[in-house]
From TrEMBL:
It comes from Algoriphagus marincola. Its cofactor is Mg(2+). The lineage of its organism: Bacteria, Pseudomonadati, Bacteroidota, Cytophagia, Cytophagales. This is ATP phosphoribosyltransferase. Pfam families: HisG (PF01634), HisG_C (PF08029). Gene3D superfamilies: 3.30.70.120, Periplasmic binding protein-like II. It is found in: Cytoplasm.
Length: 286
């Protein structure tokens, strides 16, 4: 039998595009035609299962899939035994309590004895218990924001990102109860040969993520400023220094995290750096 691992990804929705993009950035090729729910990579030992996100934690904990990409909100809600290998940095959102925007909100006690509609009864139930609030949780599977306007509930607990769905439905966010992003999860009892393949995949994901958070910087500087500039952009081991055709000047090449670049830009300019170019990095292996 050919040795391949299986990864469950969302078929279509808020996770699917970025999940597939990450896999492609890892150099893994596969066919992803509409309607095909299973696909094997042509250049990496992995098979894809395209599923509803609700089912991904269960498939991974049962071992039907070895890996999965899912939102932390869905993972915690489903409460399945899996290992979280990596936060992936996309599909960032929060779970919040919201009420009609005309209502006064004195604090969490507002919800005492109230009806709250949600697709996340476990996360909400745990939160209310922690806050000592007795409320009725009304579970619905979607379009949660409609609940107050049709008299189904007095408040809701649902996913918020930009807040525009709440606004368009006459609601206001009053409590943030959970922060979420996409995570890579794994079955807890993977065979050693599967772990080896997973490690190869993780190596590639790390290289892609590191590349994204760093930039390649090129600049020109007078030679007398080189010590100062090197201390500001020290790079991976040390920057590359190349002489310019103009005497007394050098070109400095280095790698720096994007955040640090913006923090150091004024000091770089003050030290005499000019002609600064910042170039994206596709992959980075340290
Ligand atoms: N507006 C948003 N912005 C960012 N991330 C989001 C947003 N909405 C949802 N997410 C994240 O993406 C996940 C999938 O959201 P989506 O709306 O596609 O789920 P779904 O409708 O339940 O999909 P499925 O049909 O697979 O069950 C959510 O569980 C959450 O982690
Ligand atoms: O704060 P916002 O940026 O408006 O995002 C929040 C909305 O996004 C998600 O729904 P989605 O649009 O994915 O549709 P769905 O309910 O069909 O999953 C979520 O269920 C919220 O309704
Ligand atoms: Mg779902």
């Amino acid at each position: 039998m050919e040795k391949i691992i299986r990864i469950a990804v969302q078929k279509s929705g808020r996770l699917s595009e970025d999940s597939l993009k990450l896999i492609k950035e890892c150099g893994i090729k596969f066919y992803n035609g509409t309607g095909k729910l299973k696909s094997t990579s042509t250049n990496f030992p992995i098979e894809f299962l395209f599923l509803r996100d609700d089912d991904i934690p269960g498939y991974v904990s049962d071992g039907v899939a070895d890996l999965g990409i899912v939102g932390e909100n869905e993972l915690v809600e489903k409460n399945k035994e899996v290992e979280t290998l990596k936060k992936l940095g996309f599909s960032k959102c929060r779970l919040s309590l919201a009420i009609p925007k005309g209502e006064k909100y004195p604090g969490i006690d507002y919800f005492e004895g109230k009806n709250i509609a949600t697709s996340y009864p476990k996360i909400l139930g745990d939160y209310l218990q922690k806050k000592n609030i007795q409320a009725e949780i009304h579970e619905i599977s979607g379009s949660v924001e409609i609940a107050p306007s049709i008299g189904l509930a007095e408040g809701i607990c649902d996913i918020v990102s930009s807040g525009s769905t709440l606004m368009m439905n006459g609601l206001k966010e009053v409590e943030e109860i959970f922060n979420s992003e996409a995570v890579l999860i794994a079955n807890k009892e993977l065979a050693d040969w599967k772990k080896e393949i997973v490690d190869k995949l993780l190596f590639r994901i790390n290289a892609v993520q590191k590349g994204k958070s760093n930039k390649y910087v090129l600049l020109n500087a007078p030679n007398e400023s080189l010590d100062k500039i090197i201390s500001l952009i020290p790079g991976m081991r040390s920057p590359t220094i190349l002489p310019l055709a103009q005497k007394g000047w050098s070109s400095v090449h280095s790698v720096i995290s994007e955040d640090q670049f913006w923090e150091n830009i004024e000091e770089l300019r003050a030290a005499g750096a000019e002609g600064i170019l910042v170039v994206p990095i596709e992959k980075m292996v340290i």
